[in-house]
Description:
- The structure holds 2 protein chains of 2 kinds.
- By secondary structure, chain A is α+β, with helices and mostly antiparallel strands.
- Chain A has 4 domains: 3-166, no CATH class; 199-298, PAS domain (Beta-Lactamase, 2-Layer Sandwich), CATH 3.30.450; 304-377, Signal transduction histidine kinase, dimerisation/phosphotransfer (DHp) domain (Helix Hairpins, Orthogonal Bundle), CATH 1.10.287; 386-521, Histidine kinase-like ATPase, C-terminal domain (Heat Shock Protein 90, 2-Layer Sandwich), CATH 3.30.565.
- Chain A contains 17 helices and 12 strands.
- In chain A, the strands form 3 sheets. Chain A has a 5-stranded antiparallel sheet. In chain A, strands 7-9-10-12-11 form a 5-stranded mixed sheet, covered by helices on one side. A two-stranded antiparallel sheet of chain A has the order 6-8.
- In chain A, β9 and β10 (454-461) form a beta hairpin.
- In chain A, α5 (88-101) runs antiparallel to α6 (104-125), α14 (390-398) crosses α15 (420-437) and α15 (420-437) packs antiparallel against α17.
- The longest helix of chain A has 60 residues, at 139-198.
- Chain A starts with a helix and ends in a 6-residue tail after the last strand.
- In chain B, α1 links the parallel β1 (4-8) and β2 (27-31).
- The interface between A and B is medium-sized, with 25 and 20 residues.
Amino acid sequence: MNKKTLLFLRFILILVTILVMTYSKKGLSVFEPGYLIAFIYFISNIILYRIPEKLFTKPIVSFSMFLFDIIAISLAVYFTQGMQTDFYLIYFLVIFVASVGQDVTGSLPIAIVASLIYGWLLYRENPSISFFDSKILIRVPFLFILALMSSYWSQATRRELKKKDELERFNKELQKEVTRVAAEEIELRKYSEKIINSVTSGVIAVSSDGMITTINPEAARSLGIKSEYSIGKDIREIRGLESLWQKMEQCIKNDTSIKRDEIIVNTDKKKNIPLGFSMSSISGAKDRFSGCVMIFKDLSGIRELEHKLKRAERLSYLGKMASWVAHEIRNPLTAIDGFAQLLENTDEKEKIDLFTSEIHKGTQRINYIIDDILAFARAKRKIAHVPIDLKEMMSSITKSIIDTKIEIDSVRSPIVEGDAESIRRLFVNLINNSVEAMRDNGVLKITIVDSEEFITTEIIDNGEGISVDDAKNIFEPFFTTKQRGTGLGLSIVKKIVDEHKGKIEIDSKQGVGTKVKVALPKKQEEV
Amino acid sequence: MKKKILICDDEEPIRLLLSEALKDKYYIEQATDGREALKKITKETFDLLITDIKMPGTHGLEAIERIRERNKEVPIIICSAYRLMEDDIVVKTSNVAAFITKPIDIKALQTKVWELIGD
């Protein structure tokens, strides 16, 4: 019960008291003590209005107030000699108001005090009054019953009110929390949107039925579409993105990811966009949240650079090749031309034989150079799939070598698939290199082993070896350390190995020798 | 006594050709690269050096530079597939007597040699 209500009830109580005083036997007149009491009683209510609510609700304060009320009423009645009237009813009112203001521990003492004072007043008026007089026997228990009942009632009401209050407070708190969480979610959403929009790669997310749920500005820019019109659209409806959907659908269906891949996309605005992408399925509890997210980069710029670089490389090769051809061809040509001139001025049989033989050697040399150029410059082609016995091939190649000791150690029928002519050229070049690197007491060891999908051939010589610096450039075209090399031999070897999807390693120590390891696949993939 | 000519070229057929063209009138020695030529010139006196420029090992121009450093006044004929060498700073300062471009005109070579050192 709040202060205002309680003081209002108390005000009614004062009015009723004054009313009872007015109708008492003696009545209320200005110069009587009863008038002063009534006045003080009235003033007390005004003073109580002034004290703070916190202090007012303290049990000791309210108990003192009701005690004061009982005493004031009793004095007022005493002075106005109101015992003959119905003044005792005012006690009921005080007890009722006291019960409203506090619980049974507050109202019961008030009821006791009221009963005592009432009893004493009755005794004062009539000392011979019996304890069993109806005035005592009925009225006093009534005071207690009223105190108990009304305090029970007010306590129940207070409890209800408190519950309602608490519920209201809880509701308010809940409402506040809901608002706060909603605001936070919006902030969080904005934040993640900002992150996605700031990514310099394209990001597209679709739901499992192909609806675009997220597309960042970079993605829209790369694909030449408008991001604001794309969200909520079916990705298949945007021209050119069907191919992306096919990949995404696979990802969603198999719940997998694609780490790195490339795709060419043609949209309305942009043609032939090379995209490097990775994608991953998003698995959610509900269909609404499952789908696929794709991160991609427009590779146009990189492709253009690569193209330029390749062009520059080709031009640089062309320049090197021109200079190389000039030197390589001119030397045998000079010999041929020179010996032809000498031939004109001699009739000595011996000289004629020497000069013609030199002319022949010169043409052979040119032929050899042309073969090398063709093998090197030949465009990448589909290779033939012919079974080749490497053991037989090694024996055939090394048959004509006289000055060097040859040791061949091989597994039985080491068969690889490939182009026989190219593979022969590959090993001729390698074996020639080894033989040329060795002087006296040269031993060339050839080992052929079976290593799962490959046949590995090791060619080991005890020749001069290659320096660490030279080893770096060994596969570079036009690079040679030999007196009579074209500088294309190992480039051609590398090219043939690559064409056959094989592997080559060269391990060399200057002054010790060189080990070349060539692994060629047993089977070539069908194209 | 026959005059002595040193022929320096990494290509064996060219060395053979030059020596066949000149050996009737001159005494011919051969070197396969600049280092060998330098070694021979330091050891004995030659009346003429005919050298290629682009060779593996010691480059012809390096050899010419070293020869001149050692105060050897031997006449030099450069016999190369490259004409651009005439502009080289070493060539300009080394007092090269003549350039012969490959393929070689044997008659012109013989004449040039005769002009430089006689019989």
